């Protein structure tokens, strides 16, 4: 599986395979397990999904760092990928981390759909 390299590619692939709602369901499940008070409606538009999740990640980085780390652990984002990001700009970091979270959730959904 070639992972999408940007948000638009990820959404296009999820929509093409009719797995966008399952992506949201998987994200909601991991947010719940990480004790993050955020739940997306299955009809959430991709741009809203990205912006709300990015804002949440930004707030976690700024105010609740241990919850941020817990979310990364729950989603199973690669530590190597996180360490490769530039942490100087918190807004850019939150955008990059948001994509890594969605990319990892997409991997889970795609794999489950492909092998079930």
What does this structure look like?
The protein has one domain. The protein is mainly alpha-helical and 116 residues long. The chain has helices at residues 7-16, 20-33, 46-63, 65-75, 79-83, 90-114. It is built from 6 helices and no strands.
Layout of strands and helices, then pairs:
Layout: H1 7-16, H2 20-33, H3 46-63, H4 65-75, H5 79-83, H6 90-114
Helix pairs in contact: 2-6, 3-4, 3-6
Number of strands: 0
Please indicate the percent range of residues in DSSP E strands (runs of 2 or more): under 5%
Shape: globular
Low-pLDDT segments: none
- Biggest β-sheet: count, sense, barrel? none
Give the radius of gyration.
Answer: 13 Å
Question: What is the count of DSSP helices, taking H or I runs of 4+ residues?
Answer: 6
In angstroms, what separates the terminal alpha carbons? Answer: 16 Å
Please tell me the overall pLDDT.
96
As a percent range, the share of helical residues equals over 70%
Secondary structural class: mainly alpha
Q: What's the number of domains?
A: 1
User: Helix and strand string, N-terminal first?
Assistant: HHHHHH
